[in-house]
Amino acid sequence: MGLSPIVVSGSGSGRIARPNKIKNDVPCVASSGFVFLILACVSLGLVSGIYVKFIMTPNVHASVSEIGCKVDDEGSWAIGVFFGASPFHLKPIEDMNIWRDKSAAWPVTNPVITCASASATGISSNFVADPFLYIQGDVFYVFFETKNSITMQGDIGVARSTDKGASWEQLGIALDEAWHLSYPYVFEYNGNIYMLPESRAKGQLRLYRAVNFPLEWTLEKIMMKKPLVDSFIIPHDGKYWLFGSDRSGISSDFNAKLEIWYSSSPLGPWKPHKKNPIYNTDKSMGARNGGRPFLYDGSLYRVGQDDGETYGRRIRLFKMEVLTTDDFKEVEVQLGLKESIKGRNAWNGVRSHHLDVQQLSSGEWVGVMDGDRVPSGDASRRFHLGCASVLGVAALVILFGVSLGAVKGLVPLSWCPHNVGKRSDASLDWEQSSLFYSRMRLFCSHLNRASLLLRARIKPNTCSGSLVLTLIFFVAVVLMCTGVKYIYGGSGAHEAYPLHGQYSQFTLLTMTYDARIWNLKMYVQHYSRCSSVREIVVVWNKGQPPELSEFDSAVPVRIRVEERNSLNNRFKVDPSIKTRAVLELDDDIMMPCDDVERGFKVWREHPERIVGFYPRLANGNPLKYRAEKHARKHNGYNMILTGAAFMDSKKAFELYWSKTAAAGREVVDSLFNCEDVLLNYLYANASSSSTVEYVKPAWAIDTSKFTGVAISKNTQIHYGLRSKCLQKFSEMYGSITNRKSEFNHRMDGWDV
């Protein structure tokens, strides 16, 4: 016997009504799979939070610009100034040793124009690029593309310098159209100043004339109704020559094309060269123009850009050997500019695609060049990699849950009980008749069967199973941290921090000896890549010094061999140091470059003080030397350890080797300790105001713990000697107990 079908009338044909399934009272949210996923999300969220707070280096330049400088897929281009005896011997402005007291830029360093300085006019800029010089006597004007952060199109900005490029006044926007503008080629003809910007978005090549230089321009003529890219006009052999890359055609790769036109006037009309297109080749060959051509020793040179690895990867220089209406020939020559090997930490460490070099009346050559620290499309690439990492984490979480038995199958529909409620008859009919649904159910069935086999192989209660689960968990944590870093960690660059719109450099100085070679090599390799490091000076106190070729360094390394092993050598006057700022940093301390750059920024704000990363509070009766936790307990400090501190090399070294400090230096030699304590007392003795500033590092590692070559191995003895120093120096130079500075008194978030 069986159940009789129930016939439902009303449609002319009967339909069998299916009895309702017994309702399962277990809700989906109470299933083991759902609970496991919630716990996994919470756990990974905690791991991500710990990673962000304690490990991932903060690189938020909140003080750089309140507007502009947004993350842009086109990059973070900036502009630098270069000088040389010829266009083939250009050196960056920092090599000119130009100092500016107002911004504590000793010396002034590239870049000199950035998105932050361009945004200072009130019009936000994401980046600045394509610089062209126009020189009037001793005044430099630079016209450049500035990408508006709101409209996301290029405008033409202009800046002025009256001190040979050391400082720049932003004058504002010289040209703004309803379409994208860039490559503002500026030249003079018949007493007028003209600009030939790229207007390919308009589909025209347009010539503008200055009516009130440098901020007011009017359209003089539409030169061509072609979307030309990066065009310039030059006189040669009685004619004017127009070079550009034509973007006409859907499949045209204008980065690989070059065409030439000629005329008897820079205003046209223009005739095409017989060999057009001159180039239609690989985009890495430098076909697309990369700046103003120049004449040197009777030869004409063209600047091209290599767009092979990424857009604007590097500049290539070509010497024009033949330029006639029938023929054109050029050969590549070396420009002589040395590329930075600091990578993303350098403002131009990844790419540079534009150069304008001109000769001054003095015979010296000056050039402006743009550069970027990230490749084209970097923001999108990081986002996609971050999302891929998060998806990988999701897959590993499911795999982990299946292995534990918390997740019953690999398909999400199988995580909850099937009969959580009644489904409609129409839904059931569709499921039975749909070929797609049937195949999906079959596929899911096979997939879930595979999950059972997987669980059978990975047995959590066995040693091998536990090892596999541990490995899965570890990989998931690594992928999660990687995803967070890619999505929220920025470009990975540890940038320098400007002060009043200017950048500078410092010298890194460390004191060591032959037993610490391993520490020193790792130290040089790491810190030489920091953006503002100009030179590393190694004070060699004992043993055979290493060869310079043994170091992997992005900056010059100089080893200063001392005659006797003395801690006083750390502060010896050194006329060869080219910067005002010196970072005294022990070779066993490793910290992120961003921490170093933040410390340098604070020192430039307070160059009369010792600015460092390890605070101490000397107090009590009798005076006693204690660790940092004592200073934090009393919310203040009056000393900064100079094993990791910025100082004015002139002031600090002269103070230390003054007659007043002679008795203190004898104490240092007798105890082989306390040179940093002595310098703190000398600073305090020479000033009535605060003499120390603290900067909290994101993290710091003592590498001597791994090598066993720490100078002070016994902490108790070390602290005892330092307590004696405090008492002796207080008798010699006065007490510093009343010179306490509180944590977080600067309110910049860096001295907490």
TrEMBL record:
GO CC terms of this entry: membrane
Boundaries of every Glucosamine inositolphosphorylceramide transferase 1 N-terminal domain copy: 69-372
SUPFAM superfamilies (alphabetical): Arabinanase/levansucrase/invertase, Nucleotide-diphospho-sugar transferases
GO MF: glycosyltransferase activity; metal ion binding
Cofactor dependence: Mn(2+)
Pfam families from the UniProt entry: GINT1_N, Glyco_transf_64
Pathway field: Sphingolipid metabolism; Lipid metabolism
Compartment(s) of residence: Membrane
Protein name: Glucosamine inositolphosphorylceramide transferase 1
Topology versus the membrane: Multi-pass membrane protein
Family affiliation: Belongs to the glycosyltransferase 64 family.
InterPro entries with a match to the protein in the record: Exostosin (IPR004263), GINT1_N (IPR056442), Glyco_hydro_beta-prop_sf (IPR023296), GT64_dom (IPR015338), Nucleotide-diphossugar_trans (IPR029044)
Domain Glycosyl transferase, residue spans: 506-746
Keyword set, alphabetical order: Disulfide bond, Manganese, Membrane, Metal-binding, Transferase, Transmembrane, Transmembrane helix
Lineage: Eukaryota, Viridiplantae, Streptophyta, Embryophyta, Tracheophyta
Natural source organism: Capsicum annuum (Capsicum pepper)
Residue ranges crossing the lipid bilayer per the database entry: 29-52, 383-407, 467-488
